[in-house]
Specification:
about 325 residues; alpha+beta; Fructose-1,6-Bisphosphatase, Chain A, domain 1; 14 strands; about 30% strand; fructose 1,6-bisphosphate 1-phosphatase activity
Length: about 325
């Protein structure tokens, strides 16, 4: 047991979370490879919102599609559920389509992602960048440290694993801002797996030996960091995160959401506390999940749902009749 089971979350059935991510994934899958990121994202958002509003809960979106004036649906602070004001109070972190660009281009690892916890248990992260560092389970506590250099972290992980640094594989988002990081890692002899998008899947990849990914490094969206932490709380691993601010407007946004220490290095359990449930459904084929497939009048989906209190991981395959 990784945490005490929440009776509040017991009232929101685990499999109901899968139905929500399935709905978003199916809606987005109709637009895979069509070249329109916004349309694919909008379809996933609308489907996820409709599914959330069928559930008996008083839900609040704490990680969403941006702030209210920036997103028509599923904005931070939006209330969802069929029992607002009377049902169990649930905090929700979501990304209806994690990987909009790769969906538009029919690339790998696009997901519909959702995490829930009791009220106040998920960091209300502002929509800014976050420096991230993650490893899977089985390492000594605090084997990774954002206060140290990438090289120092790789050497620490390699030593804990009983291998040389050149035997470590690191997953990094393929972005110009990571050129120096990639150069430093390759100078150590590390293998670098560059991904075009989808860093939730990238972080989770560190927990699966079949991916060969040992470490995740680099900066990406802070909301995705919280979602990834919810998954790691369920299946094990370590995560360190630090918010990155490009200007005063982003610092002011963080202050509005209650962030007082702008230089703080967050640990896994500070980003996702207590009992939590994580669910994801594949939109396109990836290292974690198969994507949505159309077979005649049916669509097939593959999903995973995890719970922190029990450490349970369920793999769910579904068939859905479609028009």
């Amino acid at each position: 047991m990784t945490d005490v089971a929440s009776t509040v979350l017991d009232r929101v059935l685990v499999l109901e979370m899968v139905r929500v991510t399935e709905a978003a994934a199916i809606a987005a899958a109709r637009l895979v490879g069509r070249g329109d990121e916004k349309e694919a994202d909008a379809a996933a958002v609308e489907a996820m919102r409709a599914a959330l509003n069928t559930l008996y809960m008083d839900g609040t979106v704490v990680i969403g599609e941006g702030e209210r004036d920036e997103a028509p649906m599923l904005f931070i602070g939006e209330k969802v559920g069929a029992a607002i004001g009377k049902g169990p109070k649930i905090d929700i972190a979501l990304d209806p389509l994690e990987g909009t660009t790769i969906t538009a281009k029919a690339g790998p690892n696009a997901l519909a992602v959702l995490a829930i916890a009791e009220e106040g248990q998920l960091l209300n992260a502002p929509d800014v960048y976050m420096e991230k560092l993650a490893v899977g389970p089985g390492y000594p506590p605090d084997v990774i440290d954002l206060a140290k250099s990438p090289s120092e972290n790789i050497r620490a992980v390699a030593a804990a694993k009983g291998v040389e640094p050149h035997e470590i594989t690191v997953c990094v988002l393929d972005r110009p801002r990571h050129e120096a990081l990639v150069a430093e890692l390759r100078a150590l002899g590390c293998g670098v797996m560059l991904i075009g998008d989808g860093d939730v899947a990238g972080v989770i990849a560190t927990t699966d030996p079949d991916t060969t990914v040992d470490v995740y490094m680099g900066s990406g969206g802070a909301p995705e960091g919280v979602l990834a932490c919810a998954a790691l709380r369920c299946i094990g691993g370590q995560f360190k995160g630090r918010l990155l601010f490009r200007n005063d407007a982003e610092r002011e946004r963080a202050a509005r959401w209650g962030v007082t220490d702008l230089d703080k290095i967050y640990d896994l359990t500070e980003l996702a506390k207590g009992d939590c449930i994580f669910a994801a459904t594949g939109v396109t084929d990836g290292s974690l999940l198969a994507g949505v497939k159309r077979k005649g009048a049916k669509m097939t989906t593959e999903s995973v749902v995890m719970r922190a209190s029990s450490g349970t991981v369920r793999w769910v395959k579904g068939e859905h009749r479609v028009g």
